[in-house]
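Possible race condition, two jobs.
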Amino acid sequence: MMANEVRMIVKWCGKEYEICNITENDTVSTLKDIVHKETGVRPERQKLLNLRFKGKAAQDEDTIGKLSIKPGFKLMLMGSREEDIAEASQAPDNVPDVVNDLDIAEEEVIIEKAEVYLAKINRRIQDYQVIELNPLREGMKLLVLDIDYTLFDHKSLAESGHLLMRPYLHEFLTMAYKDYDIVIWSATSMKWINEKMRMLGVSSHPNYKIAFHLDSLAMITVHTPKYSVVDVKPLGVIWGKYKQFSAKNTIMFDDIRRNFLMNPQSGLRIRPYKQAHFNRDKDRELLKLAKYLKLIAKVDDFQTLNHRKWEEYVSKKKRSERRTEGDEQKL
């Protein structure tokens, strides 16, 4: 009796590869050989993120039939080709610091108040189901975080997801958790959000807890005169479900400013974390922002802040502290 063929899709570096020449009797090792032929990533460098057996990562000797894979199953691959690893060992010349984002300043207020978009938010409040991972705490402010290019370089190649994690991520989240409940909001599917948080060790870290995740289904589309239709992350969805939060005590970090169109005063555009191989040893963005979060945690109303000038705010506070220390020493 011939074994049934299993069809699946491997997602790697933004592309999808259909795998169809494998059967239930083949092993994970055989699957890795086929993936190698399709992507160029050698089996020993492959990490198949959501290929699991009995709650654990599938082993090379496990047969495909044991994994209960459904037709069209999408498998996420982490790993690099040999030539890419060699190329990554040399920094590129003259890389410009270009930000591909929208100039939305003129349209922010108009869109924020538009009734048609407020109606969309109300529908999300009614229909979108939030699955709480950990209980919200009384008296906390709210920090909403993007993933890709904010906490994680999702385009670069690496043998392990940890190599693409933004430096000081766990230290940042540990510090923020003292004053803020933390929510992860990514413009991807919940499946990939959960997998990335698990891979980065965020979902199981002992020093902080994530309240819940929001995915692309919680977003809404808005029309702008300049840039036509774009997807945005309206914080009103959270505020409608959790009345203890509002523009007074919420801040959101994202590398794309247009995600703040419905709540421009609550968004802080973080510098995107890209080219992890070259920037891993010098990126300090999260450490600096952790200090900013600590400082503003004492502010009663975040609407009095200009998050675009957060670095100036931190510097000003430092100067003030130094002057105070100097005055105390004179006394």
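Job #2 (started ~2 s after job #1):
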Amino acid sequence: MARRSVPVLKQLLSNSPILNQTRSVTYMPRPGDGAPRAVTLIPGDGIGPLVTGAVEQVMEAMHAPIYFERYDVHGDMKRVPEEVMDSIRKNKVCLKGGLATPMGGGVNSLNMQLRKELDLYASLVNCFNLPGLPTRHENVDIVVIRENTEGEYSGLEHEVVPGVVESLKVITKFCSERIAQYAFEYAYLNNRKKVTAVHKANIMKLADGLFLESCREVATKYPGIQYNEIIVDNCCMQLVSKPEQFDVMVTPNLYGNLVANTAAGIAGGTGVMPGGNVGADHAIFEQGASAGNVGNDKLLEQKKANPVALLLSSAMMLRHLQFPSFADRLENAVEQVIKEGKYRTRDLGGQSTTQEVVDAVLAALD
């Protein structure tokens, strides 16, 4: 009888809450780290107020230690108001909805103004498979790190003679080295194994050649991280055929925009990809890949914009502010809602409204 009771005893002990109790490991905060932080909020255009409103609801429900300073900024303004710039400089962190940039007409992009004036030189987009969301490829987890201040986005254009426009692509060693340094540092701190530099140095031998030279120099300082290079057109082909081969990708400005949107489409769409822009002193978090749905009047009218990308971006923001437990709670809740599949917006194959997705996330918060 005693021998027969041993398995029963083991089972009882294994189910004991005392023996199974575990405590998560977190960072040791300094005194005062829990004080609420001010974050500049720019709702933006189109669906921007709808998805930033979703973030506000979730932050309030979690009692996250942040509060928002809201400013109305729109893409058709000539420039970002100075009071908004002052707020971002003071708070050092901003959450932003999409800003519509008029096509042509000589109107400057406010997104570019923010990045240049605050020197947000690194754009980061994380493209990964969400459990429960079917895609053509599995095991996709790509981080695209894009130089954010020069290249084809330098804005140096002029009309030489009527009918002939010259646009200058500017690449500097300083900006190339610091984006390469950021990419390798990111890989090192996040236990990533490989950094791939994307280029077109076979044609733009001086400009992209300088970018590659800078990446190679920085790579020698990180012998534990694999480094390779790929031409941008081959990169796009490889992305759609075998995306799981990529880990961290570092790119000049224009290529990064194209690569990030391609990777986002592969991993589930722009509506679920988080991202941000960061410099030495400031950071702006927003939807990771193209916000081309900003001006979708039908989405706005039906209130069916997907809030997932900005919710995940706000989790990145919380981690940036050193509130990791709040970031974990938010990410876990979003992933649970996606995995269950009951509440999804149209771009993910469902018919839910923005508010229905938000309500599901609120219910999933532990």
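Residues 1-20 have pLDDT under 50 and may be disordered.
Logs attached separately.
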